[in-house]
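**Reference record**
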Amino acid sequence: MEKQDLFDLNIEEVLDGWEVYHAIREFIANALDEQTLTNTENIKIFEDGQNRWHIKDCGRGIRDIHFTQNENDEKTTANNLIGRFGVGLKDALAVLHRHRKQVQIVSPYVNVTLKMAKKNGFDINTLHAQFSPLISDVHGTEIIISGVTKSDINAAKALFLCFNNQMQIESTKYGEVYSLDNGKGAIYMNGVKVAEEDNFLFSYNITGMTEATKKKVIN
């Protein structure tokens, strides 16, 4: 895809049931998957002096092609990844825009913000990715979000096993057994929480998913 000043994301209003932390979850999941795929150092999540939150990986860097709605072959074939199809980025951007949060995405290949603009050839406005000149000395992918709170970030991080202080009790070919999560039994799939159960004695991380189970994971 040739770079343009504006690229139509073909989105109006979506995912009314998603809160801000659901969008942040998608960014964290993408960063963790890139860490796994590239075997690079741990992702970083931090607040800067301007009250903006950063989610940064040290992987290959997002490209303009990733703003199209297209299944990611790596995510459909690789094991132990959180996202299964690689289509959550646009959803997350749309949700944050709906909540009036400002987002910037930078990598060695893109410098992107969001803008509502008229859809080419139609009298409607849709969400567009606005490409600006590249920023030098950027490595990996960095998502910069303005207007979110520490509570939003913590709510998103709480959905990931790697950020929770749960003791591993046992490991099998199907997954792992952990201690309770704040007194509740959590069910994880490849490290991301999908449910909580008050009556469970342990928490479970399912890693050996069947093909039928994979098809039910929509991210």
Remarks:
- The chain has a mean pLDDT of 87.
- The longest strand covers residues 111-118.
- The radius of gyration is 18 Å.
- Helices lie at 20-38, 73-77, 88-98, 150-157, 211-216.
